[in-house]
Every structure is written in structure tokens, then in C-alpha cells.
Write a structure and sequence with these properties.
The chain is α/β, with parallel strands linked by helices. Helices cover 40% and strands 12% of the residues. The strands form two sheets. It has a seven-stranded parallel β-sheet, with helices on both faces. The chain has a six-stranded parallel β-sheet with strand order 10-9-8-11-12-13, with helices on both faces. Strand 8, helix 11 and strand 9 (348-352) form a beta-alpha-beta unit. Helix 11 crosses helix 16. The longest helix is centred in the N-terminal third of the chain and has 24 residues, at 82-105. The protein starts with 7 loop residues before the first strand and ends with a helix. Bound molecules: uridine-5'-diphosphate. Uridine-5'-diphosphate binds next to helix 1, helix 13 and helix 14. Its EC number is 2.4.1.-. InterPro entries: UDP_glucos_trans (IPR002213), UDP_glycos_trans_CS (IPR035595). It is an enzyme of class 2 (transferase). GO terms for molecular function: quercetin 3-O-glucosyltransferase activity; quercetin 7-O-glucosyltransferase activity.
């Protein structure tokens, strides 16, 4: 009897490091499970990954394809330009994507089985629309965590209830008059609800409109775009669009481990019953196929692996790893505050300073000699690190992070406590969960003077608090890692995802 041809899935990823890595891991996991996966990204990313020679192309059942993003080769494609990147991708690639889906739907051009299902990065709603118009089932993949998805989902409701934009500060007018020397008139201008600014309002006020987060989610922990003054802000509009379609997809996939997010997942499943938790995907793929060497190679930058040898020479848990991900930009003042704060702790540190980390033109190059000189034997600077390997290294004792979801998961699965300094978007929510729900780190959101940096780093490296955080982080790591082992929840969820995809039932 002839074998049935493999099911062919098309996965479409946003052209950002933090989206690409988990989407590629998901594609690999599906390929290991016998599906044929066409992985679609932009031409720019395709070439940075190595094109047809990309190590990932060695994986049976996985092949890369690309569409143009409409931007010039030298476009920075950085944090400050994200809107431009996503708009240009939508406008340029929509029709190309349709043509590709139509031809792949007919088994063209290379005689492969037709694509019968797509997995679309949640931040590409246009790609979901195109597939739906062609009658091809769409699954949504959120590369950020369930906790931030849930907060994003309620932003329209927060707006409706007047919780977002944040209220103007309460102004206190003290009038000194003629009644027994002091008469105090307090005028609460917030009684008149006007267009309001975030500055000066009480950012520690608890948020009421996100079910399940009452008691710990503050205004400052909401996604960064909630700080906009105007509900018509284009980022609010775009992220709302990118979130509200997710429950209408056939399935919703998270790079998270079930027990980590059980409470919020229970809420999410009331909206999206077909929710799959298959993370941490980098651990899952390694567990499914320990011998495969290509699994770590999905980076857009060249890794400086010399830092691993430097780490080998450091005592256990003595190094603070510092990395702000692929998009964060820092002002020169912030960079120096971090540096002084770190140096003042007298702990060793390994710091990733991307060439484009500094927001001022000229990059970080011109301050690096000064930092390198001052860092001396205690520190090691690289432009891009093999982060997963660094976090798994026994010399690393803490992670000063921007709380990107991948970094958070990688730290959690390695049992490394975090100092969180979220920069934007979901990172605001993630860092609150790290400190208040998982208790695996401290959150220094919105502050980065050298004294605070020093205090926070000491808190995760020294004394009783550090001891407690280490214990919590280790327990969390064990729990999360067990999810990707035989019979673990992420393995079971992946099996279910494959089965549902094959049967076409979601
Ligand atoms: N990363 C890396 N080397 C570095 C810095 C970052 O490999 O020097 C990887 C990191 O392991 C993570 C990704 O880049 O997988 C960053 O994703 P995240 O969601 O943490 O942040 P984003 O870059 O999206 O802000």
C-alpha cells in the first residue's frame, strides 16, 4: 500500500529575531514529527540566514522561501522603525504571498504535496486574511507569552472603560489664605476626564480590566503602547489588529510551558479552546532530536563564541550576563548608567553590546574603548553572544535582561534569576510576571540610574534574596524542562497539534 504523502504546512514568520527563532524551532519540531514545512520569511532575513545554504535547510522536511519586504538593503530594521517594517512588508508581500499560496496549493512548482494549512505569526494579520480568502486553514503563532497576549487582548476593553490612556495626574493646589493662617483647597482635576497623559499619573495604580491579574498588574506593567496619549495611536491600532484575530484562527500556539502559565491559559481557553503550549521550543527541539547540530543556528548576527572560553575561566555563578535582545536601543546616558552600576557591584559581567545598540548615530563603537578599558578583568564585551549556551553555562549567576519573551524563557529554562529592565511592548508584562508570579527575578522597570542597577544586581547575586531567587529559578527550570521530556505537557501538546493539523480538526 502506498504511503500517504506528508502533510504540507506553510509557516510565515515576522522578520524579527525574537519571532524568527521560535517560529523556526516550531517548524523544526513539526518537520521532526514528519510534516513537510515551507518556512517563509523576507528576502532580507532569508539571505542573513544563509539562503539556500542555511544550516536549517539540512533538516529533512524543512525548506526556506522568501518574499520581499519592500525596504532598501541598508534600512536599519530596528526598534524605532518597526511600524515601517511591518507596513512595508504588508503592502509589498501581500500579493506575492497570495501567488505563492495559490501555486503551493496546487503542488507547484516542485511537485510537493499542496499546502493544506498555514501557521502565521500573530503579527502578520494580512497573511491570515489571504490564507482565509483562499480557504486554507490558519493557525496563529504568538511568539510572545500567554501573559502578554492576555493583556494585549484586553486593551480595547481598557480603553472602553477609561483605564487607557492613563489619567492625568491629580493636581494639588495649596492655597495659603487668611483663615487661621492656612487654608488648603484640594482640587481634583481628574474629576473632569480629559485627554490624558501618562506622565505624572500614578503608574503603580493597579489595573482592573484584565481578568486574573487583579492585585499585581499595575499601569506600568501594561504593554508599553498603553502609555500613548491617544487611543488612535498607530501602535495601539496595529497591535489590537494583530491580537483580535487570534481567537478566530483554527488554533493558537504559544511558545510556553503549560504549568508556567496555567492560570492565564485557563482564561485564554475560554476564548480559544484550541490553544497549544509547545515551549520552550528551543528545549523541545533539542529533546526531540538531541543529535541535530543546526538547531541553534537561527541568528541574524554572527555569534562571538570567544565569550564561552572566557566563561570557562570564571567561578560558578559568578557572572552577570547582560543582554537587551535584538531591537532595544539605549541612549549613551543609559548605557553609561548600566556600566557604572555593573562595575560598582564588583561582580564579573558579560555584556552584549550590539553595534546598533546606541540610539545616537555612530553606534556604540566610539564609547566601547572607554568601557573596555574601564571593564578590565571583570568584564567581557561582545557584539552578539550564543545566548542560550551562555545562559546554560555554570559560570552565569544572573541575567540583566530587557525581558523579551525568548530571553525570559531561555533564562527560566536555564534556572538563571533575572534583573528585568523592560524596554517596550510585551516586555512590560513579562517582567512583572518574572518578579511577582514566577518570583524568579527583580523588576527595575522605568528606572536605570547606577545606584538602582547596582542594588538590583546585588539583590540577585548576593545574600538571602539571591538565595531565594536562585531556589525559585531552579525549581521553575526543573518544572519547565520536564514539560519537554517524554510525556511532558509540551510534547503532548505538539502531538495534539500535529494530529489536529493532519485531521484538519481544530
Ligand atoms: N540573542 C542571541 N544573542 C545575543 C542576544 C540575543 O542569541 O547576543 C537571542 C536570544 O537568545 C533570543 C533572541 O535573540 O532568542 C531575542 O529575543 P527576545 O524575544 O528575547 O527579544 P527581542 O530581540 O525580540 O527584543
Amino acid at each position: 500500500m502506498a504511503l500517504a504523502p506528508p502533510l504540507h504546512v506553510l509557516a510565515f514568520a515576522s522578520p524579527l529575531q525574537g519571532h524568527l527563532s521560535p517560529m523556526l524551532k516550531l517548524a523544526e519540531a513539526l518537520a521532526i514529527k514528519g510534516l513537510l514545512v515551507t518556512f517563509l520569511t523576507t528576502e532580507h532575513v532569508y539571505h542573513r540566514l544563509g539562503g539556500a545554504d542555511a544550516p536549517l535547510c539540512c533538516r529533512d522536511g524543512l525548506r526556506l522561501r522568501s518574499v520581499p519586504d519592500g525596504l532598501p538593503a541598508d534600512h536599519p530594521r530596528l526598534a524605532g522603525h518597526l511600524g515601517e517594517v511591518m507596513r512595508s512588508l504588508r503592502d509589498t508581500s501581500r500579493e506575492k504571498y497570495r501567488e505563492l499560496l495559490v501555486s503551493l496549493g496546487k503542488g507547484e512548482p516542485d511537485g510537493l504535496p499542496p499546502v493544506t494549512c498555514t501557521i502565521v505569526d500573530a503579527f502578520l494579520p494580512f497573511a491570515a486574511e489571504v490564507a482565509a480568502e483562499l480557504g486554507i486553514p490558519v493557525m496563529a503563532f504568538r511568539t510572545s507569552g500567554p501573559c502578554s497576549f492576555w493583556a494585549y487582548f484586553f486593551v480595547p476593553k481598557l480603553i472602553e472603560q477609561g483605564e487607557v490612556p492613563f489619567p492625568a495626574p491629580i493636581l494639588l493646589f495649596v492655597c495659603v489664605g487668611g483663615f487661621s493662617n492656612i487654608v488648603v483647597w484640594v482640587v481634583f482635576l481628574t474629576l473632569v476626564r480629559r485627554p490624558r497623559a501618562a506622565e505624572g499619573c500614578d503608574m503603580d495604580e493597579l489595573v482592573r480590566g484584565v481578568p486574573g491579574t487583579e492585585g499585581f498588574l499595575r499601569r506600568r506593567d501594561l504593554p508599553s503602547f498603553c502609555r500613548a496619549k491617544d487611543v488612535n495611536d498607530p501602535v495601539i491600532q496595529a497591535t489590537t489588529l494583530a491580537t483580535q484575530w487570534n481567537p478566530r484562527a483554527r488554533g493558537l500556539i504559544f511558545n510556553s510551558a503549560e504549568p508556567m502559565d496555567a492560570a492565564v491559559l485557563a482564561h485564554i481557553r475560554t476564548l480559544c479552546p484550541s490553544t497549544y503550549t509547545v515551549g520552550p521550543l528551543h528545549n523541545l527541539v533539542r529533546a526531540l532530536d538531541p543529535s541535530h547540530i543546526a538547531t541553534a543556528a537561527a541568528g541574524l548576527w554572527r555569534e562571538d563564541r570567544t565569550c564561552l572560553a572566557w566563561l570557562d575561566a570564571q567561578p560558578p555563578k559568578s557572572v552577570v550576563f547582560v543582554s537587551f535582545g535584538s531591537l532595544t536601543v539605549l541612549s549613551r546616558a543609559h548605557l553609561l548608567e548600566f556600566w557604572h552600576g555593573l562595575v560598582n557591584t564588583h561582580h564579573r559581567f558579560l555584556w552584549v553590546i550590539r553595534p546598533d545598540l546606541l540610539e545616537e548615530t555612530g553606534g556604540a563603537g566610539d564609547v566601547l574603548p572607554e568601557l573596555k578599558e574601564g571593564t578590565k578583568e571583570k568584564g567581557y564585551l561582545v557584539e552578539w553572544a550564543p545566548q542560550q549556551e551562555v545562559l546554560a553555562h555554570p559560570a552565569v549567576g544572573a541575567f540583566l535582561t530587557h525581558s523579551g519573551w525568548n530571553s525570559t524563557l531561555e533564562s527560566i529554562s536555564s534556572g538563571v534569576p533575572m534583573v528585568c529592565w523592560p524596554f517596550f511592548f510585551d516586555q512590560m508584562v513579562n517582567s512583572r510576571y518574572v518578579s511577582e508570579v514566577w518570583r524568579a527575578g527583580v523588576d527595575m522597570k522605568d528606572i536605570c540610574d547606577r545606584a538602582t542597577v547596582e542594588k538590583m544586581v546585588r539583590a540577585v547575586m548576593e545574600g538571602e534574596t539571591a538565595e531565594k531567587l536562585r531556589k525559585n529559578a531552579a525549581a521553575l527550570a526543573e518544572m519547565v524542562r520536564s514539560c519537554v521530556g517524554e510525556g511532558g505537557s509540551s510534547r503532548v501538546s505538539l502531538e495534539k497539534l500535529v494530529r489536529d493539523t493532519k485531521l484538519g480538526v481544530f
